[in-house]
Write a structure and sequence with these properties.
Elements lengths: L1 E5 L8 H16 L3 E4 L5 H12 L4 E6 H4 L10 E5 L2 H11 L2 E4 L4 H15 L6 E5 L6 H12 L5 H4 L2 E4 L2 H9 L16
Parallel strand pairs: 1-2, 1-5, 2-3, 3-4, 5-6, 6-7
Helix pairs in contact: 1-2
């Protein structure tokens, strides 16, 4: 099994973000689960990769050439794929992975997670998608997603596809326990 981790190229403001990234990387390696990520050596990306590598884990990076050329790529990965675009990066990361987890990060992290979650909703894959809500980082986003459901822009079944946990151990358990719902892939006319 391999889990794709989306996270910041910055360490963020709170030490808890880096600590959780390290703990998640170590947990994946200890459980024999490969890590697929964006290939950088900086921020939370570097922390999760270094932690997994430090425990002897498989770590596969996928990085666009423009970022690799700026010497951001990690020098010690199990494998590093240099691709031509961000689109190619996301496609390869998805292909190599059996599940997706977002640690704290910025809009790139959110965009990556929302894309694979949308793919799950549309039936393009049946892989788990999760948010590691370290120190309440994703609390506001989780509330907004619940608002989408309340306002009927998202069906509850699609909301349930996104697993949210506050510790690396709980996140891994949620990913392992994920069973994709049997839900229609397209939203039809309103039942009244």
């Amino acid at each position: 099994m391999r889990i794709c981790v989306f996270c910041g190229s910055s360490p963020g403001r709170r030490p808890a973000y880096r600590e959780a990234a390290v703990a998640f990387g170590e947990l994946l390696a200890d459980e024999g689960i490969g890590l697929v990520y964006g290939g950088a050596s900086v921020g939370l990306m570097g922390a999760v990769a270094d932690a997994a590598l430090g425990r002897g884990g498989e770590v596969i990076g996928v990085i666009p050439r423009a970022l690799a050329d700026r010497e951001l790529s990690h020098p010690s990965l199990s494998a590093l794929h240099v691709v031509e675009s961000m689109h190619a990066r996301k496609a390869m990361m998805a292909e190599l992975s059996d599940a997706f987890v977002a640690l704290p990060g910025g809009i790139g992290t959110l965009e990556e997670l929302f894309e694979v979650w949308t793919w799950a909703q549309l039936g393009h894959h049946r892989k788990a998608c999760g948010l590691l809500d370290t120190a309440g980082y994703y609390r506001g986003l989780s509330g907004f997603i619940d608002h989408l459901v309340a306002e009927e822009f998202m069906k509850p079944v699609y909301r349930e596809m996104l697993r949210i946990a506050s510790t690396p151990e709980a996140m891994l358990a949620a990913v392992r326990g994920y069973a994709p719902p049997d839900a229609p892939k397209w939203i039809g006319p309103r039942d009244t």
